[in-house]
């Protein structure tokens, strides 16, 4: 009996030490994540937090910090999931609501973001950033008057100058939208006093001055905007428009020229330049410019459908071809499935996709748990246009190896190409989380 009691005590001691060690190890990985975040290595930070979560899944700080790291990587869907988990574990974490709202806003889910900011303010009524974000969201929802109330609150609260500057600028923009041009000029002027190096503030004040027919003042503001940002096509256009209003047609043409050089699709600049050329009796060139103003990007006279911002076939091929097959040699088994797999790679590289798939079919037949063979067959099928079959192969590879980052990546870009943006971006988020960092390049480009 005594021996049994001592054995139980020993076991309890071992479990206690083991638990303490695991907790310390999770804490160490958390600290690694913090240090990597501080150094700008957000991919490494995300991986470190993932390890900490695997060892201690009940620590809300690990999910929150991983959400922040994903947010920096523009992986907003993945960040939202982490902030969801943070809130599940700590329902009064005001910052989790705040940053979840920010990621929702980046996904254009502004009404849901607004709810998160409301909750943040309930929990932390003096959080200037929450009012700033809520005001910005209300402005995007065209609720300019209530947005102005939020920006005014930011100005009243004790907060950093950068937040006050942004509040003045954003309040000025809302007043401009409400056609309170005098009020907007006052706010833009205050913002300029706080930060005279931001071109957009001068450009916005110039536009408000243009609206009250202060053309000379507008031109001066656009001068400053262009000095600070010589690539600003819109400010060249607006300065040209202002010059047209005071009959400086030659000066206006110079500005419209520059605007068109910077943005060949700026139909208003073609219109303005055509107008000025006609005033200067250069009717032939005026007609050419005005014709461009009518025809460029005019969907009413051009029925051709164009696609932009999506993953089309050419982009899919380009993104998929970033992936390399596993370079490590596998042990040669009695069924020789590895040989069929390796020959499939060689055949594919030699342009024989049909032969490659035949070898992969045989490899999988001999070894139905061969995750790499499923993945590479999905890769080859995608390259030959069989995207739905490729999706199934990638899914099978993931079932066999849930940490197969490349499989999540390829499945993600295929889903996106087939119109499942949300599912594709979640897969890309998972790929990045598993260490396949190329996924974050695609997330930045196509998931925001």
From TrEMBL:
The keyword Repeat applies. TPR repeats lie at residues 26-59, 60-93, 94-127, 128-161, 165-198, 199-232, 233-266, 371-404. The keyword Signal applies. It comes from the Bacteria. SUPFAM superfamilies: TPR-like. Pfam families: TPR_11, TPR_16, TPR_8. Residues 1-22 form the signal peptide. Gene3D superfamilies: Tetratricopeptide repeat domain (1.25.40.10). Keywords: Repeat, Signal, TPR repeat. This is Tetratricopeptide repeat protein.
């Amino acid at each position: 009996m005594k021996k049994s009691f001592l054995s139980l005590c020993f076991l309890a001691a071992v479990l206690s030490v083991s638990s303490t060690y695991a907790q310390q190890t999770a804490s160490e990985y958390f600290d690694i994540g913090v240090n990597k975040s501080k150094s700008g290595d957000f991919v490494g930070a995300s991986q470190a937090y993932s390890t900490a979560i695997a060892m201690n899944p009940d620590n809300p700080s690990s999910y929150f910090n991983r959400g922040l790291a994903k947010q920096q990587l523009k992986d907003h869907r993945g960040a939202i999931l982490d902030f969801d988990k943070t809130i599940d574990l700590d329902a009064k974490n005001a910052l989790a609501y705040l940053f979840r709202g920010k990621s929702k806003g980046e996904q254009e889910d502004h009404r849901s973001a607004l709810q998160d900011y409301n909750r943040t303010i309930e929990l932390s009524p003096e959080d200037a950033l929450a009012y700033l974000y809520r005001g910005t969201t209300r402005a995007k929802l065209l609720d300019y008057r209530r947005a102005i109330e939020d920006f005014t609150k930011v100005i009243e609260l004790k907060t950093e100058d950068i937040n006050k500057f942004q509040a003045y600028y954003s309040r000025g923009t809302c007043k401009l939208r409400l056609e309170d041009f005098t009020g907007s000029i006052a706010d833009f002027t205050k913002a300029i006093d706080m930060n005279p190096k931001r071109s957009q503030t001068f450009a916005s004040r110039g536009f408000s001055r243009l609206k009250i027919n202060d053309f000379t003042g507008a031109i001066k503001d656009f001068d400053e905007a262009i000095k600070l940002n010589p690539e600003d096509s819109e400010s060249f256009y607006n300065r040209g428009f202002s010059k047209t209003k005071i009959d400086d047609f030659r000066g206006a043409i110079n500005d419209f020229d520059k605007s068109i050089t910077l943005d060949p699709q700026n139909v208003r600049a073609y219109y303005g330049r055509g107008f000025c050329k006609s005033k200067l009796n250069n009717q032939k060139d005026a007609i050419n410019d005005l014709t461009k103003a009518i025809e460029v990007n005019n969907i009413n006279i051009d029925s051709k459908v164009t696609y932009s911002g999506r993953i089309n076939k050419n982009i899919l091929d380009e993104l998929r071809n970033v992936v390399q097959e596993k370079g490590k040699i596998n042990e040669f088994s009695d069924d020789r499935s590895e040989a069929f797999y390796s020959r499939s790679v060689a055949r594919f590289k030699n342009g024989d996709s049909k032969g490659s798939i035949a070898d992969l079919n045989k490899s999988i037949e001999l070894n139905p748990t061969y995750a790499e063979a499923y993945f590479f067959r999905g890769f080859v099928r995608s390259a030959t246009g069989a995207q739905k079959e490729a999706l199934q192969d990638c899914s099978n590879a993931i079932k066999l190896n849930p940490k197969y980052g490349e499989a999540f990546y390829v499945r993600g870009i295929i889903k996106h190409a087939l119109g499942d943006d949300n599912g594709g971006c979640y897969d890309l988020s998972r790929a990045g989380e598993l260490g396949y960092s190329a996924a974050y390049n695609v997330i930045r480009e196509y998931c925001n």
